[in-house]
């Protein structure tokens, strides 16, 4: 059920029965010469909407801009500063509780948001207001991701390429896949920026000249579909598990 | 040109030539028994995308959740607190300047955002970072709005109804138009909550039982189209005017 | 009853019986070549003190400096930034509740403060701490203002001029009234700065060369007295209405 | 020269010649059974206005409410929280620099404001924006204060009583002077709340039952006048000294 | 009992019986040519650990960096800005209450921290969360300090010198004591920076060329020991007094 | 060179030559039934002081309390909230730049601090103020850690146990090693709290009953020494690498 397309009366029926919401969070940032800047928010939205469709749980509109200062050297990357993002997500989530929501899944497709969504989740839980978890699609199916790609790449690599090939094929510049591979690096390790145990990089450009990693030519729409089906299945199960918990079991444990 | 669907290389071409961006801002909030909660962000996005299409200027993704605490008593209304919204919009806008943007149109369709976007615009301008203006579709065509509707209603009324009938007809509950009219009030004045010159209301529910105002049965998709064409034309002209200004003429004037 | 001139013992008697306070809020900012920068805070204080005198309700000292960055290009304009003003007013108002105050009238004479006082009022009400309304003298008597002046002007115009001619005639530079009229503009509309529906101005100087609008030669002390009596009467009635309400009726309504 | 009573044109003449401003800061708080809650802001305003009159330097309107949470148990005490006060004073002071002010005297009559005005002064100076000093009337004439009164009392005692007897005699409840003395304590030391070197009190009520200290019956209007003349003379000299300094000598010294 | 050297199980035994904690707060800042920058935090830690040892109460690790911007012109001075220090101490203290702590002694050896610790103490007490007092070693034994030294000096003077000679003699540059005395000033009064009642200085360097005051050659380790024993005794008694109070007697008194 | 034990004159010599500082950051938090709560700050301090000794670079005092809310259910855990910690570290680091420091190594031994130190590092670098990296001892020698222990455990496990056995053997409760192992879990994976790809835990107690993970009986002081030597060597090399870089190469790269 997609919140934005319903009236308040219809939503009243949902809240009378349920207290779970999926909140898609992505980013708008460079994804190399071959993928659109929408990549992360398209993926987050696709998973959240699909899982909501399959389960009947509520999905909210997508937060399209996240914490992406590390991609700012590449044209068009949008971002909000980290403290602002946290406060925005906290306010958005806390206000949902006004309608009775007490468990939230941040359906996330941008690595740069993870720690901030976790911090927001802690604030909500420690305050006893709500229980929110962050879910990142590729972390739910690590084995499949590893099986499908030789070099899966953490940003703009074949796994994200395959996802957009499947979800929005018209947005992939297929003729730039080789350029994507050749102008970037295979992995952060290859960039040689972890020095004596310290990550000395802060920006993507410190590691990769064109903003991406991995071998994009390894991607296909079929692999994208396989990923999507497998991870959606995980998300559906997560929602069902969450829905089945007692509220008190989700909240912070007391002092020993 | 829609930022999110382009690669950073393609966007580099845009920024080499232009410094203007349209940023759609709406809300996700109750719009009575007949309209979806997406109403405001759908309208904002439609105008911004259309004007970008016609002019070639850049349009960013939409900020879907705004300042709507005054609708919170109705199921599903989402909002972020006002200070958080301001900081989010300021950060988002200021970071755009990193790519050379120095003039922004907040294409807005939610009255509750206006003063906050103006405050953000002041911050950006007083700091000398960018010049941003707020544009609200119906304020650009006041005569037409008055001509088309007997009682146009400021929230969830016939003008917004007509817009969604035109843009997304499948989302209008046509069988609830009469209920919308009969369960609300015609105007804020009719609610009688301005007492001895003071607005004594803070929430929509203080004025209207079902969250909306005006006579929704007066709306048609044809009127919606007429509104859309007329206001889009205004927005296109605003962009062209803004683009033609010298940067220094847009910035704050010096002390007398 | 003026709080500042009483001892804590005497005030204890007031709080034992009443829970209403009037808080005058103005500004210190340019008002053209003919009026003192005190204009707004003098007016606010005059109304609040008079209404307190007539009703017996409590009036606090005046907040003399408000949100006036839009007048800063003119010598001597004082202001505090908007977030700071809101926090100051919120803290001041919330702390009043420690003595039992639960309803407050911000007696305001500066348009630039309105939205901020409304935002503060929302914070106090949503938190369940107090109910505060903003009251602006000229908004309580719109018909009279229109009747008395051909071109009443929103800032430094004849209505404010008449008020100071009545309240503090020695502070009006009568020999500068024509200069005030001739060096400014008649109205914001005349300035031509609303472009395709967007307010493109941020500062007074964007609209008017000498900082004021309207025809100041239309003002007289007699008109000032008429305004003062009429608006004071409105304020007195507002206080009495507010005093008569049950606290619970003033607070935010519950979720539908 | 009192800023609030002048027009922007007249103030332009001042700023063309001078860069000094006096900003009176007081409080509105209980001052025992005999003095009005206005005591501190009346005193601050009187000194600042008088020194401005005698020297020709600019005096701004008074900040009437300061940091007085320690008096809150007594009816009517108004206050803003310390961080809010600091931000308000900083914003007010910093914005004055827009007109060319680079040296400010906070003419203060409330002990609870001192450290906060000092902190604001540091912020302004460390940022290189302005040089502001805090001046407290009784600290400029310690010997005279000690000579005039056996037990001068830090709050609501004879020195403040004498000041109001001189400045606003109609506001002193002369028949409550003995009650003031008998219901309070002579000094903080007498309250016995400094325990093993630690100040264990936070509020005035921890030390004194009626909110005041010292022997109020020792006060007269004549003593008040003597104090006023002597301290005004100090303030006048401070302004002249400050005016004579080079800006660079007032600003923070460089690293050794 | 030193918190940091115990396991959580052992600490559980403490919290089952007690609710008091000592929190040492110092600074890392220049102390002239003869003393290490650690001076203040070494002293604070020594007192707190010793009192904890003698009484069995809990001592936490030391906060080594405090509010020392006024010493920044001298190499190596570390500091955090005042608002940050307050928030850090408040968060640290409030979180201690999670384990049942409701009374805290800030064992402080840096004058620049005092007002900030007091402000934090007010926040905690006004919120009803905990009762915290600031204790500064030399303020607990003013007579002894005066007896031992002709010119005791408020910063880097003989009293602090004697303390380090006793606690950590290897850290005192004995051959620089005369230089310390000769390159500084005897007292703030001697610096002549209190002008017409106003403190016109903000930084130590405004008063003293080498950062210190007083006559350091007057210090000996024996005097240091005498100070340490006397002040420790005061601190021990303070802890015992605090421990013996009822919680409600420590908290803020109600409104009269 | 340990900053705290030197005078400002001596430190002036250092800053004349160098611009690098090591800042140890740890925590004070439960480490199971066998280790002291000081564990993390002892380890951080030991590494930082040793590397400073071997290289001659400057080491500051240790920040003893970090971001540990996830251990709060266990007695004695101290923490500051995450936004407060970030602001404290940022202020501390930024102020160091006043003396010429432009490169900082946060020598860290608490996993919970990592992301926050990285965020602070970004702020400093993006502002162009300084270049700071986070270094965590065990991340510099992953292979050795894996070789030495079958189950190394991320918190309170054998690697931390071995470190304290080596650094401060008297603080290890050797008779509780088996209890530590048996009352906890071997790894986060074993706790089963990563559900369908989502980390559903927020606190240590969600995963482990006694607060620790891994097999503590596998630890010895000899292994601790081996770890210490190997990781110190890495830190020494990191400092030397950092010192050899041009400042401009450390700062953020420009826009493509």
Architecture overview:
6 copies of one chain form a homohexamer. In chain A, helix 4 (114-126) links the parallel strand 3 (103-108) and strand 4. Helix content of chain A is 43%, strand content 9%. Chain A has one domain: Creatininase (Rossmann fold). In chain A, helix 6 packs across helix 9 (221-244). Chain A has helices at 8-17, 39-55, 82-96, 114-126, 142-148, 158-167, 177-183, 188-191, 221-244, 247-250; strands at residues 20-25, 58-59, 103-108, 131-136, 194-195, 198-199. The first copy, chain A, is globular and about 55 Å long. Chains C and D meet through helix 1 and helix 3 of C and helix 1 and helix 3 of D.
What's the structural blueprint in terms of helices and strands?
The structure is a homohexamer of 256-residue chains.
Chain A: H1 8-17, E1 20-25, H2 39-55, E2 58-59, H3 82-96, E3 103-108, H4 114-126, E4 131-136, H5 142-148, H6 158-167, H7 177-183, H8 188-191, E5 194-195, E6 198-199, H9 221-244, H10 247-250
Quick rundown:
The structure is a homohexamer of 256-residue chains. With 256 residues, chain A is of the alpha/beta class. Helices cover 43% and strands 9% of the residues of chain A.
Which class of secondary structure composition applies to the elements of chain A?
Answer: alpha/beta
What fraction, in percent, of the residue positions of chain A are helical? 40-55%
**Overall mean pLDDT score of chain A?**
97
Helices and strands of chain A, in order, run as: HEHEHEHEHHHHEEHH
Number of strands of chain A: 6
Count of all domains of chain A: 1
CATH class category of chain A: Alpha Beta
CATH hierarchy: architecture of chain A: 3-Layer(aba) Sandwich
Gross morphology of chain A is globular
Largest sheet, strands/sense/barrel of chain A: 4 strands, parallel
Radius of gyration of chain A: 19 Å
How large is the count of helical segments of chain A? Answer: 10
> Ranges of chain A with pLDDT <50 over ≥5 residues?
none
Chain pair with largest interface: A-B, 52 and 52 residues
The CATH superfamily of chain A is known as Creatininase
Q: Beta-strand percentage of chain A?
A: 5-15%
């Amino acid at each position: 059920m997609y919140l934005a397309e319903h009236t308040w009366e219809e939503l009243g029926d949902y809240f009378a029965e349920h207290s779970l919401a999926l909140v898609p969070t992505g980013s708008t940032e460079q994804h190399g010469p071959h993928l659109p800047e929408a990549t992360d928010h398209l993926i987050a939205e696709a998973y959240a909407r699909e899982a909501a469709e399959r389960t009947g749980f509520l999905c909210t509109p997508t937060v399209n801009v996240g914490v992406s200062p590390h991609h700012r050297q590449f044209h068009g990357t949008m971002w909000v500063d980290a403290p602002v993002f946290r406060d925005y997500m906290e306010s958005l989530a806390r206000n949902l509780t006004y309608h009775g929501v007490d468990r939230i899944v941040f359906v996330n497709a941008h690595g740069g948001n993870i720690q901030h969504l976790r911090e927001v989740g802690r604030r909500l839980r420690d305050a006893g207001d709500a229980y929110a978890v962050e879910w990142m699609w590729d972390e739910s199916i690590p084995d499949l991701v590893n099986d499908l790609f030789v070099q899966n790449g953490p940003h703009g690599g074949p796994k994200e390429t395959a996802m957009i090939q499947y979800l929005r094929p018209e947005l992939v510049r297929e003729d730039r896949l080789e350029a994507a591979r050749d102008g970037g690096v295979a992995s952060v390790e290859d960039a040689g920026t972890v020095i004596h145990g310290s990550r000395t990089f802060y920006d993507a450009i410190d590691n990769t000249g064109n903003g991406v990693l991995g071998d994009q030519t390894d991607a296909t729409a079929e692999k994208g579909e396989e990923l999507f089906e497998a991870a959606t299945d995980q998300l559906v199960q997560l929602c069902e598990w969450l829905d089945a918990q007692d509220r008190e079991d989700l909240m912070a444990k007391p002092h020993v």
